[in-house]
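Sample A.
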Amino acid sequence: MKKHLKHATTTANQSQKLDTKIHGLSRGTLNYLRPYYLGDQSGPQRSRYVLWVDIMGSQGKMLRNVRTASIPLMKLHVAALHAKKKTLGRVDLFPVIDGIYVVSEHLGSIGFFISDVFRSMAAEFLALENWERSVIRGAIAYGPVIMGAECKEGAPILKESDYADSILLGMPLVQSVLAEKAAPPFGVYVHESARAFGQIAGHSVTVLLWRWWRRNADNTRIAGALLPSLRSYFEWCQKNSVTSGYSPDRIDSHRVIAEEYFGEFDRSASDGRTIASKEPKPRKPMPHRTAETQANAVPAPEKQIAKLRRILNLTDEQAEQIKPILEAREKQIAELSKDALLDPEVRQLKILDLVNESKSAIQSFLTEDQRTVLIEREQVHSATKADTKDE
């Protein structure tokens, strides 16, 4: 009883002190003016991988010419949306002007997202002149986050719009931004929090620098062409340090870590091997299906559904929901195969994208356990393919 009286007296004294400190304002007025939010209604803390990726020197680019700067910045966001559409496993995007936070429960999903975005932005870099080029880099961290979408119960106004959906809070946000400073151009640094807990297909992550081209022949070719282009870009920036807004000391620093990161592609390496000798063998082109072979074969969607039934124990309802996705994919692949004007390599890339997009679309009809099984199988499959190529 005495404790309660003491607490009440203390609260009253604090209130009285507050009223005397701020002349003309009552406690009731202050409470009315304060922003209302129930802290115990904040969403749960969820352990997630967080990737931060942005364009190097974007602030300087915007200060010099906002329209010119908007082009690479928007292209980064476009690349991220395309990657999200193809990623197996849920990824949430939180755009922040010149960069993006990417959040996922699965490191494998983050890895696929990185490989797709970095390949896309690297291709953009290779296609442009030095004065038009922009460089991205990123970092991965792991830890507890709170999603703004899960905090709406804290205040009525948060429920009135999707504003809170764009809010993300947590330690890995800070860790990934700080760690990004150690990343090379077109590289990704792995923070110690991700190295401590991260696993893909049962294997721990021990590397400091994430090499996004591994396990993919097309990505390897793109990455292999980056080092000479980066050297040319750094040389141009050094000769035009005022125009580029790129200080010579930072250029030297970034050149050194780029040489280390992409060193395996250096044609002048001491072992004398070329890029071609290090690349995985290119995939064989898909055989052309004739009308006769298609008629005699079991339809691909039926085969795929039968396989998913076996692996994931699909219900009849799930099979019916998934079937249109696979049928649409098969139709698009058939149309691509008939396009004689399409470059064979582009056709192959488009077909691969269609396959990845269909896998991602299927997820929405699966249970959490089924999604986990599918993601884990994909990670093991990717790791097995990589081991086979290395042999």
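Sample B.
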Amino acid sequence: MKKKAALGLGTALAVAFAGGLVFAETPRTQADYQADPAAMIEAYAHVEVASVSDALEQTLHQKRYMSHRMQAIFPTKFAGFAVTVKMEKHEGGTSADSAGMLAAIDSGKPGSVYVMTVEDGADIAGMGGLMGTAMFARGFKGAVIDGGVRDLPQLKRIGFPVYSLGPVPSTSVGHYRFAGSNIAIVCDGVTVNPGDVIAADQDGVVVVPRARAAEILVAAEKLDNTEHSTLPFIEKFRSIQEAVAQFGRI
């Protein structure tokens, strides 16, 4: 029987289930994560984004996930702190008008996630291979672009993950100008502040307010643990109704 254990940080313990042992780890507390942001981000990189989304809705009563339009260029999973960039329409400019979006990369710290909004930019590439290569070289975890992306062969070659509204061959140069970085932006309908936690996997992208990130993570880990305990129960007893009654998770 295939068993799936939730990933976490802490002291290992064995949990007896269905005649076997499922090895899990004692979850860290909210205070632990608040004191260790690096461990918190590492844990966010393992917890399922669907569980984070549920925890956000249950705790904050907010929907803080991006829509189905935001798609990855290849299957991926990452988490990091947001570096935000805003681009606005401006016809007839030069490449100098985009200098700020490049400076945001060069000033970004390892572990960052580049989050850009391009005004009405579904058919405009907000970034491509050059920017992605720079982010990769600087240790960024990924990018989330409310706009298009191009140069997919290069991005896939280096394995740099990007979520966007889709691939397009166009350029923003001459059509857009930099309107600010590390400011509050709205990316695919979700407000993103600099330093917010961005978590992404094959289910999509969620944004966690930095001030509540440790609290949300603990709640998400609990949801993950419940779901991962439910799966072998379903496989053994072949009943989703009994599983939901037993574990209360769907």
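B remarks: The CA atoms of residues 13 and 25 lie 6 Å apart. The two ends are 21 Å apart (CA to CA).
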